[in-house]
Amino acid sequence: MRVSALHPDVLVATSAVWQTTCTLVRGGEGTQRHAGASTGEAAEGFVVDSPVLPAELESLAAVAARAGFPVSGLLTTHADWDHLLGRLAFPDAALGCAETTAARLTARPGEAQRALRAFDEDWYVERGRPLALGSVQALPVPGRLDVGDRELELHPADGHVEDGMAVWIAWAGVLVCGDLLSPVELPVLEAGGSRSAYLATLRRLAPLVEQASHVVPGHGAVLDGVRAGAILREDAAYLEALPEAELPVARRSTVQRAVHERNVAAVGAG
Question: In angstroms, what CA-CA distances link 33 with 112, 148, 224?
């Protein structure tokens, strides 16, 4: 797992599997910030999404502690299983998510656990305990969430699947967008996803991308705002052109061609 600092209040851990990202954000209470640094003790912090492998999850709490990032709770951008593993690292933390994600988890109980077991069986991964999601808090999206003396902005981000939210960390200029704007993956229309909803989400996020110093996709390297804007335009053009779309040059691997075929089928079925 690779860990990088985007801002004094934002760390990103990137898993060795699928380059899945996990973002740690903290906010101080009554702290004095100057010259890009913080003084005083951070009062609250959230872990957004999760790495995948057991060793990565086991080390996440130590990473947060060493960096002075308290963990008051977990957030997930959507209900795909590889973004829900934070409770394996922080078993007592409550999980916050968009109301659409809470509805998906309620409607399809055990879906994430079954998908995780299938992954572990395929790759011979052993875990110390099964995934239990525990307390799930449905958050109004669009909305705001306090973190210490700061606020996170929560924006709807459906289209890839039927649920989702993006997290805008305004004071740091960081946008955490889940399975969108990936430099390594095409837009993916999974079950419950929708081309029209995906395009609406891209239009909704475009002003935030323009303001962002960093954009954290669910999979792939952290992007600067300029590169993220270019990917946003590529992704919108790709979706609009389906089923005849050309694949972006940097995303023409065998795996992404298979994703494209599934997208074509999804659009045809719609």
Answer: 40, 13, 23
Q: Rounded distance, CA 220 to CA 223, Å? A: 9
For residue 91, the domain's CATH number is 3.60.15.10
Which residues, 6+ apart, have CB-to-CB distance to 190 below 8 Å?
Answer: 80, 160, 161
- 167: containing domain: 2-269
Q: Whole-model pTM above 0.85? A: yes
d(CA 238, CA 222) in angstroms, rounded, equals 21
Candidates 57, 71, 75; CA nearest to 129 is 57
Question: Please, are residues 95 and 106 in contact by the beta-carbon 8 Å criterion?
Answer: no
Per-residue pLDDT band for 74 (boundaries 50, 70, 90) equals very high
Q: Is the pLDDT of residue 35 over 50?
A: no
Amino acid at 33: R
The first and second tokens of residue 145, run together, are 């969430």
Query: Among all chains, which residue has been given the structure tokens 């609406």?
Result: 200
